[in-house]
Amino acid sequence: QAQLVQSGAEVKKPGASVRVSCKASGYTFANYDINWVRQATGQGLEWMGWMNPNSGNTGYAQKFQGRVTMTRDTSITTAYMEMSSLTSEDTAVYYCATQIKQYRAGSWFDRWGQGAPVTVSS
Amino acid sequence: DIQMTQSPSSLSASVGDRVIITCRASQSISIFLNWYQQKPGKAPNVLIYAASSLQSGVPSRFSGSGSGTDFTLTISSLQPEDFATYYCQQSYTTPRTFGQGTKVEI
C-alpha cells in the first residue's frame, strides 16, 4: 500500500539548517505532488509548500520563501525539505503528504508521513 | 491569505451524541474545503473532501456540508474512537490554510 516514511528526530542549534526526508513507496512517485505541513507542539497545522516530483517545480508559503527548499531524488522516490536559519520558533513536527487533485473537487492531502520532530535549541 | 475559522475550539460530548463543527472562510472558496481528523501523536487523516465527499474507508457517521464561506462537519453518533482534534482546510488557492482545530473531548 502507498506510504510515506520520514526521517527521524533532529536536534539543531539556532542558525543551523535541517533536512527532512520523505521516502515514498507503493505508488508512482511522479504522479502526486508532495506537500509539507508543520505542527508546533499543541498547535495547529501550518502549510509550508509543495513540490511536483515529476518536474521538480515548487511553491512555497510566503512565510518560508528564501528559507525553505523542497527537492526530490526520483531514483530513490524520496522528497526532501530543507530549512535554513533555524530559530526556536521552528521547533515542530514536520509532515510530508501526497496531494490528490480532482477536477471540480479541488485537492486534499491523502497520505501522510509519520512526522519528523525537529527541535531547535541552544 | 484565506483565513479559516472553526467553532467551537473545543467541545465536550458523550458517546452517541450528535456533534457539529463549523468552519468559516474569510472569502468564498466554493466547495474546496476538506476536513481532517488528528489523534495525539499521529498524522492527520482526511475524512471529507470537496465539502461533502466522504473519503474511502471513513465511517458514514461523518458528513460534511456547505459551500461558499460556511461549512459544517457532522458526526451523527459519536463513537469512542472519534475523540480527536478536527481541522478544516481550504484548497481554493495557495497558501493552503487550515482552521485552528476543534478538540472533541469526553
Topology summary:
The complex is a heterodimer of chains A (122) and B (106).
Chain A: E1 3-6, E2 10-12, E3 18-25, E4 33-39, E5 46-51, E6 58-60, E7 68-73, E8 78-83, E9 92-102, E10 106-112, E11 116-120
Parallel strand pairs in A: 2-11
Antiparallel strand pairs in A: 1-3, 3-8, 4-5, 4-9, 5-6, 7-8, 9-10, 9-11
Chain B: E1 4-7, E2 10-12, E3 19-25, E4 33-38, E5 45-49, E6 53-54, E7 62-67, E8 70-75, E9 85-90, E10 97-98, E11 102-105
Parallel strand pairs in B: 2-11
Antiparallel strand pairs in B: 1-3, 3-8, 4-5, 4-9, 5-6, 7-8, 9-10, 9-11
Which properties best describe this structure?
heterodimer; A: 122 residues; mainly beta; 7-stranded mixed sheet; 4-stranded antiparallel sheet; 54% strand; globular; B: 106 residues; 11 strands; 0% helix
3D structure, described in words:
The complex is a heterodimer of chains A (122) and B (106). Chain A contains no helices and eleven strands. Chain A is mostly beta strands. In chain A, the strands form two sheets. In chain A, strands 2, 4, 5, 6, 9, 10 and 11 form a seven-stranded mixed beta sheet that branches. A four-stranded antiparallel beta sheet of chain A has the order 1-3-8-7, with no helix packed on it. In chain A, a hairpin with a 4-residue loop joins strand 7 and strand 8 (78-83). Chain B has 106 residues and is an all-beta fold. In chain B, 0% of the residues lie in helices and 48% in strands. Chain B contains no helices and eleven strands. In chain B, the strands form two sheets. In chain B, strands 2, 4, 5, 6, 9, 10 and 11 form a seven-stranded mixed beta sheet that branches. The relative contact order of chain B is 0.34. The mean pLDDT of chain B is 97. The chains are: A mainly beta (122), B mainly beta (106). Chain A binds chain B through residues 35, 37, 44-47, 50, 59, 61-62, 95, 97, 100, 102, 104-110, 112-115, and chain B through 30-34, 36, 38, 43-46, 49-50, 53, 55, 87, 89, 91-92, 94-101.
